[in-house]
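pls design
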């Protein structure tokens, strides 16, 4: 049994090495919340709430996650699984069940769920990937590129990442920045596994742009319409050969059930943060695999802790497409773990040690902490 005696929260800020622009906004730095769960016997589990700073990808922000974590989630996790005798919990799913009293707030919950899995992995001596059901020693890595000032700038970024060996390149698109830049990348890299991501930027009656993209040999078109526009996604998928991939549309496994019944997409992007942690992410993987839907692990520019959890998740058998587990150096000059996650020739090794497999760099973490909160 595991009983949590202490919850520690750190709001940490790191600058990005290269500005990242999507259809809604640009970012030059990121703030994430690092969660630490300490058990009664002194074992520690680390997690990361990789929420956006602004309400563009999701209604949640780092401010809302901080308020939710300090006011509601930390007390719930402290009492997770406890009975009158205060015996604690046996499996991380019990922590997820305790947090289920809170509706929504998936990003806020994800950091606690991740930390519970890491703590359980440390306590049981089982590597996190194996604990989740993973069976790979390494995972294929793709890379995500933002909207650049010019097409030449974009081609330079693509060439850089292809030269580093990444096995798939994702391009952010938006109205006015779609067919022309993607066509230029395809012309320059005719054999490159390539896909595009709109982050729901297009109106549900826009079809012409996607018909043109459909002719460019893409792996997938990700989230063309708004999250709840599943009927529109289904109608678009019916007239395209290129698979649609759902991201923001699937926050919970029940959303996936709806999407599957409608035929709203043929690929699923599973993000640990978007879905509320590793527990629901594994469930979504299992559901998709049962229906023959390929999945890959998307990212939220996680620091080393969240990135390590993504690597572990990507080792599960249903992750048949390259995941956004690119090396730390693509985003940060220095990460918050003592050793960064490294991508070599398009592959990232899966840690075979208990816990996340990466050690937090406490002095560096402390130096970049904006706000600190401990319960009790």
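designed seq:
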């Amino acid at each position: 049994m595991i009983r949590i005696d202490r919850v520690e929260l750190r709001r940490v800020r790191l600058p990005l090495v290269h500005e990242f622009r999507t259809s809604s906004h640009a970012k030059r730095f990121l703030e994430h919340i690092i969660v630490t769960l300490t058990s009664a016997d002194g074992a520690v589990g680390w997690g990361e709430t990789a929420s956006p700073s602004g309400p563009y990808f999701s209604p949640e922000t780092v401010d809302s996650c901080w308020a939710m974590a300090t006011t509601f989630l930390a007390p719930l996790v402290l009492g997770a699984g406890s009975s009158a005798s205060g015996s604690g919990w046996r499996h991380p799913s019990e922590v997820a069940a305790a947090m289920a009293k809170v509706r929504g707030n998936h990003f806020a919950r994800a950091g606690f769920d991740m930390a519970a899995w890491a703590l359980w992995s440390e306590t049981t001596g089982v590597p996190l990937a194996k604990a989740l059901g993973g069976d790979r020693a390494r995972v294929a890595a793709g890379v995500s590129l933002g909207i650049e000032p010019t097409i030449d700038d974009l081609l330079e970024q693509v060439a850089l990442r292809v030269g580093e060996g990444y096995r798939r390149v994702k391009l952010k698109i938006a109205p006015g920045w779609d067919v022309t830049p993607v066509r230029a990348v395809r012309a320059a890299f005719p054999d490159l596994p390539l896909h595009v991501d709109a982050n729901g930027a297009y109106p549900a009656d826009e079809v012409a742009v996607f018909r043109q993209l459909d002719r460019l040999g893409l792996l997938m078109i990700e989230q063309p319409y708004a999250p709840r526009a599943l009927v529109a996604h289904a109608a678009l998928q019916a007239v395209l050969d290129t698979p649609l991939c759902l991201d923001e549309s699937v926050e919970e496994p029940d959303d996936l059930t709806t999407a599957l019944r409608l035929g709203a997409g043929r690929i699923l992007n599973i993000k640990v943060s978007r879905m509320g942690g590793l527990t629901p992410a594994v469930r979504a993987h299992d559901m998709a695999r049962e229906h023959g839907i390929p999945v890959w692990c998307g990212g939220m520019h996680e620091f080393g802790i969240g990135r390590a959890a993504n690597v572990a998740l990507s080792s599960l058998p249903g992750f048949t497409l390259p995941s956004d587990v690119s090396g730390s150096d693509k985003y940060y000059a220095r990460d918050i773990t003592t050793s960064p996650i490294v991508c070599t020739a398009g592959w990232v090794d899966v840690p075979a040690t208990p816990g996340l497999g990466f050690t937090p760099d406490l002095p560096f973490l402390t130096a970049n902490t904006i706000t600190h909160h401990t319960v009790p």
